[in-house]
Amino acid sequence: MRVVDHPILGKLPEGRTVEITFDGHPLEALEGEPILAALLAHGIQRCRTTVKRREPRWFYCGIGRCTDCVMIVNGIPNVRTCVTTVGAGMKIETQEGLGRWERADA
Ligand code: FES
């Protein structure tokens, strides 16, 4: 789902389409849109799992305050995807619990 004609903000401006990957699957996204919006446009509604009970989480505040939307972005865990914009070739991964860091020398 993507809002292309908002009653207050108007029509969505034309944007450059870029390719990102989500859990290893290629997806098209609009360059500069929030990662969360790109995932939602593809029907994805799960960012992470909780640390203790491994329950799925999606976004809550949508403005960078709650950390419910954190994911692993380009190997870096705990990135707030509601306020991080899409760039070409980004690698987005569902974060399980506290996430994991990719080793730079691996
Ligand atoms: S949804 Fe709250 S920080 Fe992203």
Characterization of this structure:
The chain is mostly beta strands and 106 residues long. The chain has a single domain (5-96), classed as Roll (Ubiquitin-like (UB roll)), CATH 3.10.20.440. Helices cover 7% and strands 32% of the residues. A 5-stranded mixed β-sheet has the order 4-3-9-7-8, with helices on one face. The protein has a 3-stranded mixed β-sheet with strand order 6-5-10, with no helix packed on it. Strand 3 and strand 4 (25-30) form a beta hairpin. The model has no long low-confidence stretch (mean pLDDT 93). Residues 59-62, 64-69, 80, 82 line the site of FE2/S2 (inorganic) cluster.
Essential attributes:
106 residues, mainly beta, Ubiquitin-like (UB roll), 5-stranded mixed sheet, 3-stranded mixed sheet, 7% helix, 32% strand, globular, binds FE2/S2 (inorganic) cluster
Largest sheet: 5 strands, mixed
General shape: globular
CATH class: Alpha Beta
Helix content: under 10%
Counting DSSP H or I runs of 4 or more residues, the number of helices is: 1
Radius of gyration (Å): 14 Å
Total strand segments: 10
Oligomeric category: single chain
Give the tally of structural domains.
1
- List the uncertain runs: none
- Class inferred from helices and paired strands: mainly beta
N to C succession of SSEs: EEEEHEEEEEE
The separation of the N and C termini measures 37 Å
| Proportion of strand residues | 25-35%
Mean residue pLDDT: 93
Strand arrangement within the widest β-sheet reads 4-3-9-7-8
Q: CATH topology, which one?
A: Ubiquitin-like (UB roll)
